[in-house]
Amino acid sequence: MNSGIQLIYTVKDIMNKDFLKIKASSRVSMALDNMLNLEKNEMLLVDDNNNLVGVFTKNDLYKLKDEYSTFYEVLEKKIVQKPITITQEKSIIVARNTMVKNNIKRLPILDKDEKVVGLIHLHNLNDEFYKNVEELYTLQDNILENMHEAVCITNSKGVIIYWNKSSEELYGVNRKDILGKKIYDVFPNALITKVLKNPRKITNVNNEPYPGKTVILSAVPIYNSKNKLLAVVSTDRDVTEVISLSKELMKEKKKVEFFESAYKKEIASNYSFSSIIGKSSKVIENISIAKKVAPTSASVLVTGESGTGKEVFAKSIHKASGRTGNFVPINCSAIPENLFESELFGYVGGTFTGSLKEGKIGKFEFANNGTLFLDEIGDMPLSMQAKFLRVLQDGMIYRIGSQKGIKVNCRIVAATNRNLPNMIKEGKFREDLFYRFAVVQIELPPLRERREDIKDFINLFINQVSCQEDIKINSVENSVYNALSAYEWEGNIRELKNVVERMVVLSTDGKVTLDSVPKHIIEDIRDIKEGSSHKYDLNERVKNTEKKIIKEVMKITKGNKKKAAEILRIKRSTLYYKLKQYDFIE
Fold it and tell me: Where is the Sigma-54 factor interaction domain (predicted)?
């Protein structure tokens, strides 16, 4: 196919403007001297009105006779043939084909007034150049012809020079019936016409060429290297099917929303919170509250000592909520104050030194339609608390460096081991933010208040570590359960898990024995037992406490008595006395 798009590449772009033009009334001898002096291979002969009448070449010299006075006599003798010409708007492909067809090596170029303005030689269009251009045109045609969009191209005068296959199918007009016509004669309201009058890019304009057909139009001006308008290209995308499908999807969306709502209620009522272990009444009560609040959008505040499983509860609430988004945890105590805002809200590229060029999405956006878990909420800087409150009120976040708001829908679950009411009194935490977080509050008991659950935790962690480390455990002595159940567990469940991991790794022949239990736990249990018979004996309790503290400080100082005495704020002689009293052998 030879499409009109080739007209954009014209002979005007490569024609030679430095040519010899002689009036046919000129004397032959003078013209020949001029031709030879200028080292030209041809002369273009024009009449008195500057119209081209012939082309005289060096090969015509041998045909001349002395009696010829002017070139009019040469023309009368038909020594010079009638010139074959081409207009400057024609493509270079047409120019080459014209020269090959007529067996000529040069081709005069005429303007719209048919005055000669240039000359093009066949050697300017050598085989390599022609091959490259032809491949370029073929590539263009293949691309444009296989586009789903309807493509129309006009020259700067509004004449249609390209009309692809998709255009034929969309508008029912054959290319042979439209090429060469003015666009406004065929389509009076065409977008191309607007661009021709005011050259600027216009995109995504809705149009309905006839009832039931919806098209998105775009048009863009094309310029040459000298910023002169060459053409206008329009692309028309048929979105009728997409619009129809969108309407169907809206209907289905309403159905999905109905079933999704029912699904949330169903999963929330049946979700067993199996990841949470607990037999105590307090834990069972907390699970019941969590199951009820899970399918709602209410914020939840989970409180309790460090290591009591606050994140486990938060994950269970998220899983039971039926929310489709991510569970995104963020530890407020681990983020430097100057990075807090960028972590939560994100930023646009190049906002500050060290920022990523492409920008960064914030945790709020990442948790959209999901759950944002804020651990250690008591460590959130006061400067951020006001901004956070605004997000909870408006449901809108702004990336740093952007004025464009982003709507977010994420459930907030916060957690802390600190006393927020006391922090409010001290002016370290906003009261209004506290009530936003604590719509529903769940307080987790420490492990020492739910000793009946310790054995189940031990078995759970043994199974987890065994699988992870590929260590098979065949038996656990009852004395291990008894010892670990009697310990105080200041670090709660997290501390218990670390101890169990140590016992599994150090086990022998697949057995976990009392020897696997860390010595400090055994000694603390012994101290507790020794003190139990003197429960209300103040001297005995003080003695046990003193013994425990001295032992701990000696461990910290690695037996350095001078340092230990300084830490304990007692004389070194007193420390020696205490060490001897409590049978500490160094």
Answer: 276-505
CB 432 within 8 A of CB 260: no
pLDDT digits (tens, 9 = 90+) for 67-90: 677 878 877 777 777 789 999 888
Is residue 274 a contact partner of residue 287, using CB atoms and an 8 Å limit? no
**The whole model's pTM is what?**
0.48
How far CA 201 is from CA of 6, 183, 218, 261, in Å, comes to 22, 18, 8, 45
Query: Which amino acid would we find at residue 132?
Result: N
Q: Where in the chain is the domain with CATH 1.10.8.60?
A: 447-529
Question: For residues 551 and 538, what is the distance between their CA atoms, to the nearest angstrom?
Answer: 20
Q: Tell me how far apart the alpha carbons of residues 231 and 209 are, in angstroms, rounded to a whole number.
A: 23
Q: Which fold has domain 4-119?
A: CBS-domain (3.10.580)
Strands lying side by side in the sheet with 116-121: 86-87, 106-110, 116-121
What is the topology classification, in CATH, of domain 534-581?
Arc Repressor Mutant, subunit A (1.10.10)
Q: Which of 34-43, 48-57, 539-548 has the lowest mean pLDDT?
A: 539-548
Residue type, 206: N
Using DSSP's 3-state secondary structure scheme, residue 87 falls into strand
DSSP codes, 329-376: EEEGGGS-GGGHHHHHHEE-TTSSTT--TT-EE-HHHHTTTSEEEEET
User: Shortest CA distance to 300 belongs to which of 413, 136, 188?
Assistant: 413
Owner of token pair 């005429």: 110
Instruction: Give the confidence band of 501 by pLDDT, cuts at 50, 70, 90.
Output: very high
The CATH T-level fold of domain 447-529 is Helicase, Ruva Protein; domain 3 (1.10.8)
C-alpha separations of 393 from 367, 389, 410, 436 in Å? 17, 6, 12, 9
Q: What pLDDT digit, counting tens, does each position of 343-371 carry?
A: 899 888 877 666 677 788 889 999 999 99
Spatial contact of 26 and 71, defined as CB atoms under 8 Å apart: yes
pLDDT band at 423 (very low <50, low <70, confident <90, very high): very high
Question: Which residues are bridge partners to 443 per DSSP?
Answer: 303
Rounded CA separation 395/409 (Å): 7
**Pick the residue with more confidence: 81 or 187?**
187
Burial of 460 (C-beta count, 10 Å sphere; 0-12/13-18/19+): middle
Residue 584's φ and ψ, nearest 5 degrees, are -80, 115
